[in-house]
Design goal:
- It comes from Sphingomonas corticis.
- By secondary structure, the protein is an alpha/beta fold.
- It folds into 2 domains: 112 residues, Rossmann fold, CATH 3.40.50; 149 residues, 2-Layer Sandwich (Dihydrodipicolinate Reductase, domain 2), CATH 3.30.360.10.
- Helix content is 31%, strand content 30%.
- The protein has 9 helices and 16 strands.
- The strands form 2 sheets. A 9-stranded mixed sheet has the order 14-13-12-11-7-10-9-8-16. It has a 7-stranded parallel sheet with strand order 3-2-1-4-5-6-15, sandwiched between helices.
- A hairpin with a 2-residue loop joins strand 11 and strand 12.
- Helix 7 packs across helix 9.
- The longest helix has 15 residues.
- The protein starts with a strand and ends in a 7-residue tail after the last strand.
- The relative contact order is 0.17.
- The structure holds NADP nicotinamide-adenine-dinucleotide phosphate.
- NADP nicotinamide-adenine-dinucleotide phosphate binds next to helix 1.
C-alpha cells in the first residue's frame, strides 16, 4: 500500500522532479493536485487543499511546491485536515514564519519535513564521512547559475530575500550538513540589480569552529556552463563536490557515490517522517541567508533583463 499524496503548486520543480519521482516511488502515489492551472494530469484537481481532501478522502499527505511566500497558510490548512506535510526549500518567506511550523505539526500530531534537496545529492554523505576526523582548513563555495534557465519568467524569484539566495541556500544546506559545528556569517556583499528587490550575486565570508575559513561566491547571472562546486581543504587531503553535490572528487580523483536521485531520497525520507509522525525541520541554512541580509553591504549593479 503506497501513501496517497497530493502536490500543491504544479510549476517547474513539480514537473521536473516531484511528478516523475512520485511516479517511480515505492512509497507514494499521486492522488491529486492543488493547482490553479494544471488540468493535464490524470488525477483529481482542486483549488484548495480542503476541496481536494473532500474529493479524495483517503488523502494522507501533501508536498508543497509553491513559492516560499504563503506557506504558513498552506501548512496550517493541511495539518488541520490531518495531512502530513513535505515542503520545498526555502521553507518560508521569513524566519519567524518558518519557526512556527514544527510547533504547528507537533500540535496537530502530523509529520513535517522541510526538505533541502541538495543535501540529498549523491556525493554529500560520502564527503561528510570522508571529513570525519579531519581538520578543515578552508571551504570555497562557488554556486553560479543562470536564473533565466532555472526560473524562466518567475517574477516571485525577485521578491525581497530571494534572488540568488534561492540557489545559494542549496549550497548552504550542504555546508551546514557537512560541518560538525554551526556556521556564522561574518561578512556579506549583496549585489542588487538597479530595478530588482533581491540580489543577483553575493559574496559571503563565514566562520565556524569546524572550519577556519569559509568563502562563498553566488551568482544568478552565469552564462554557459553552470558551476555548483564546494571545495574543501583539510589537514589530510582535499575534496571537491561538483555538479551540485552529485559528483565527489578526493585528491583530484573521482570517487564512486551511491546510486539514486536527490528527490528519490527526499521522498524516501518523507515516507519515514509519515510512518513515525516525525518532524524534520532544520532551519540552519535559512538563518544564514537571513543573517547575510542583516549584515550584508548592498551594491547596485546593472538592471536585470530576462531576455539579455
Ligand atoms: P514555479 O515554476 O513558479 O511554480 C510554482 C507553482 O506554485 C506555480 O506554478 C503555481 O502552481 C503555484 N503557485 C501558488 N501560488 C503562487 C504564486 N503566488 N506565485 C507563483 N506560483 C504560485 O516555481 P518553481 O521553480 O517550481 O519553485 C517552487 C519551489 O521549488 C520554490 O520554493 C523553489 O525554490 C523550489 N525549487 C525550484 C527549483 C527549480 O529548478 N526551479 C529547484 C529546486 C527547488 P499552479 O499553477 O499549479 O497553481
Amino acid at each position: 500500500m503506497t501513501i496517497p499524496i497530493a502536490l500543491v503548486g504544479v510549476g517547474k520543480i513539480a514537473r521536473d522532479q516531484h511528478l516523475p519521482t512520485i511516479a517511480a516511488s515505492p512509497h507514494f502515489h499521486l492522488a491529486g493536485v492543488v493547482s490553479r492551472h494544471a488540468d493535464d494530469l490524470d488525477v483529481p484537481a482542486a483549488a484548495t487543499i480542503a476541496a481536494l481532501k473532500e474529493q479524495v478522502p483517503d488523502l494522507a499527505a501533501v508536498s508543497l511546491c509553491t513559492p516560499p511566500m504563503g506557506r504558513a497558510a498552506l501548512i496550517g490548512e493541511a495539518l488541520h485536515l490531518g495531512l502530513h506535510v513535505m515542503v520545498e526549500k526555502p521553507p518560508a518567506a521569513t524566519i519567524s514564519e518558518a519557526e512556527r511550523f514544527a510547533g504547528m505539526a507537533r500540535a496537530a500530531g502530523q509529520g513535517l519535513y522541510l526538505t533541502w534537496h541538495s543535501r540529498a545529492a549523491s556525493g554529500v554523505e560520502p564527503l561528510r564521512q570522508w571529513l570525519s576526523g579531519k581538520a578543515i582548513r578552508r571551504i570555497a563555495i562557488e554556486w553560479m547559475e543562470d536564473v533565466r534557465v532555472w526560473h524562466p519568467g518567475q517574477e516571485w524569484i525577485w521578491e525581497p530575500g530571494i534572488g540568488v539566495f534561492d540557489p545559494g541556500i542549496n549550497a548552504l544546506s550542504i555546508l551546514t550538513h557537512l560541518l560538525a559545528s554551526p556556521a556564522e556569517v561574518r561578512e556579506a556583499v549583496l549585489r542588487y540589480p538597479a530595478d530588482r528587490a533581491a540580489p543577483i550575486a553575493a559574496t559571503l565570508a563565514l566562520a565556524s569552529d569546524a572550519a577556519a575559513e569559509i568563502a562563498v561566491d553566488f551568482s544568478f547571472d552565469q552564462r554557459g556552463p553552470q558551476t555548483w562546486t564546494i571545495a574543501v581543504e583539510t589537514d589530510a587531503g582535499h575534496a571537491m563536490l561538483r555538479d551540485g553535490g552529485g559528483r565527489l572528487f578526493v585528491d583530484d580523483a573521482e570517487v564512486a557515490v551511491p546510486e539514486g536521485t536527490e528527490y528519490g531520497r527526499l521522498y524516501a525520507r518523507f515516507a519515514e517522517v509519515v510512518a513515525q509522525g516525525a518532524i524534520d525541520a532544520d532551519l540552519a541554512p535559512f538563518r544564514l541567508v537571513a543573517d547575510a541580509h542583516l549584515i550584508g553591504r548592498r551594491e547596485t549593479v546593472a538592471p536585470f533583463r530576462w531576455n539579455d
